[in-house]
């Protein structure tokens, strides 16, 4: 028989969180973030006995309603009925997996990386970037999903109280976007890892989904990019992950505190990403479906602008405090594709009347 020793709180000189933090001091590289040295939260709260601050943040994001709604938000393909197409949720999980692999290889704080990765797209609108484009045109101050993610996590979740996340997590989420804007980067190496992982994930899984949907074939992909990165999704992700780890480790060795890809690898990724924007994201093949989605969102937005009394209470209060357009935008940005379509049908589509 196996002997199982039961540990009790009094058996340890430190609690579980402190033991984890002590391990972090030994395994995280000099420029990584140690949980015990976090910049903290906007509202101070007692430390958790079993989890570091970044573990707490990860769990709060996972248990949030906004996170659960990602499963019904489009990644690229609108209203696909196949089981194997990515959604915004599965994209988020792939980003988390890639970024944790890179972070562990470099020697960074994996819990911080995971929290940032899981929350990075939580402010995305229904119908992929089409929804973001609609709200950006309708709102006086524009709309960006990364900024909206911060708004959701700080002001909308938890019945308007927010999740009170650490500043490092919020910073990483805010600066995960803008791949080719070198000045727009997270303050932490962990946040920078998520930014690269986001692009590594979506470029490759969107190629996979596009081929599955029959709107792209492998021989259409830029051959010079494939010769550098790999001819399969797994090969490309492996090349990019390995290159990011070794390039960043070399940077740190030479006192350059920055996550990077080597030039030829990054150039290939940028070219492949540009190909996807030209041919898939903004291409003719999905134009009709994009226009349908934009029309639906525009009509739903217009309806609640005309009927603000039908907004849920939390959004009516925002409308009173920050303006009607902001209240409507907050409501719509949280909608899943299915819920947005249900609202559209409920408000605009005639119903069968039986006498």
Automatic annotation (TrEMBL):
This is dGTPase. Residues 88-203 form the HD domain. The keyword rRNA-binding does not apply. CDD domains: HDc. It comes from the Bacteria. One of its GO terms (molecular function) is hydrolase activity. Pfam families: HD, HD_assoc. InterPro entries: Diverse_Catalytic_Enzymes (IPR051094), HD/PDEase_dom (IPR003607), HD_domain (IPR006674), PHydrolase_assoc_dom (IPR026875). Keywords: Hydrolase. The keyword Hydrolase applies.
